[in-house]
Design a protein that fits this description.
The chain is an alpha+beta fold and about 290 residues long. Among the domains are: about 70 residues, Antifreeze-like/N-acetylneuraminic acid synthase C-terminal domain (Type Iii Antifreeze Protein Isoform Hplc 12); about 120 residues, no CATH class. It is about 25% helix and about 20% strand. It contains four helices and seven strands; from the N terminus they run H-E-E-E-E-H-E-E-H-E-H. A hairpin with a 2-residue loop joins strand 5 and strand 6.
Length: about 290
């Protein structure tokens, strides 16, 4: 009887341990299933948005082509809530600062901005670069405040630029009495947009050909620039073929009076003779009375 009691006690303990193990396993399985169900339910509840991704690897510094991009629907979360683009249009023609891999989100912070540290962009918001598009550049002009609308010009305004240069006439040509060396001014560059300003330095948008001319004129030291502000609505190009100013042209055009010799006569006029210093009189002793 004593041996049977001990066997029953041992068997009960084994059953109790087995029950505890089964309970732990059941609890862990239930926790896993509930957690997985919650995650799946959370993903179903996330809002899906359209985002632009790379359809293939896009190298850096290469303009984006339409075939480089594709639109996909992805759940919106903290990883893709900022900088995403919904349509390929605004990205076509833009240049990437880094290489973007296939299926990677093409976000706005990956675009190589032309602004740099100055905070300006050479291209207009909807402007793209193509094989036949103008080669735009940013170039600086030095314009003193009196020649820059009193120094009141600001970024975003459109100006026309006058160039004043010294025209050197050869002596043999000047001897004929027609031409002489003097300064000449003419409106040279029109519709230049001011991208930024720092003191008397004006950064304007110009074609690469115009940028080259401006760089040469400034380096030569033979030219100065003046700016005239344009109305924003006036985008016309003025025919400058008959424009240009010299001092004599202005005198002739507006009938400025020509200074004449005064007094009339054409020669030197008489002046008072110089005042000479008179020597002191000399007294001579005399023995006879003066007549």
């Amino acid at each position: 009887m004593e041996m049977e009691y001990k066997d029953t006690n041992r068997r009960g303990k084994a059953v109790l341990v087995l029950g505890i193990v089964l309970a732990v396993i059941a609890g862990g399985a239930a926790f896993f299933l509930i957690n997985n169900a919650q995650q799946q339910a959370g993903q179903r509840d996330l809002q899906k948005v359209s985002v632009v991704v790379a359809a293939r690897d896009i190298p850096a510094r290469k303009p984006i082509e339409p075939d480089d991009l594709i639109v996909r629907q992805v759940p919106l979360d903290a990883t893709n809530g900022q900088g995403v683009v919904a349509e390929p249009g605004p990205l076509v023609g833009q240049v990437l600062a880094v290489t973007v891999l296939k299926d990677q989100l093409v976000t706005t912070n990956l675009i190589a901005s032309a602004a740099g540290g100055g905070g300006f962009s050479i291209l207009q918001p909807n402007e793209t670069i193509g094989p036949d598009s103008e080669a735009w550049r940013a170039v600086s002009l030095t314009i003193p405040d009196p020649q820059a609308v009193g120094g009141l010009l600001q970024a975003g305004q459109t100006i026309d630029v006058f160039v004043t240069a010294t025209v050197n006439v050869p002596l043999e040509l000047a001897a004929k009495g027609i031409y002489y060396t003097d300064r000449s001014t003419k409106i040279t560059y029109q519709n230049l947009v001011i991208l930024a300003r720092s003191g008397t330095y004006y950064i304007v948008r110009a074609s690469i050909a115009v940028s080259e001319e401006i760089a040469h004129l400034q380096a030569s030291g033979n030219a100065t620039f003046s700016a005239a502000l344009r109305p924003q609505q006036d985008v016309r190009t003025v025919d400058a073929s008959r424009l240009g100013a010299t001092t004599n042209l202005i005198i002739t055009r507006y009938g400025l009076p020509i200074p004449e010799t005064y007094p009339a006569g054409g020669g030197a006029f008489a002046t008072l003779p110089p005042i000479l210093e008179t020597p002191a009189p000399t007294v001579t002793p005399s023995t006879s009375p003066a007549p």
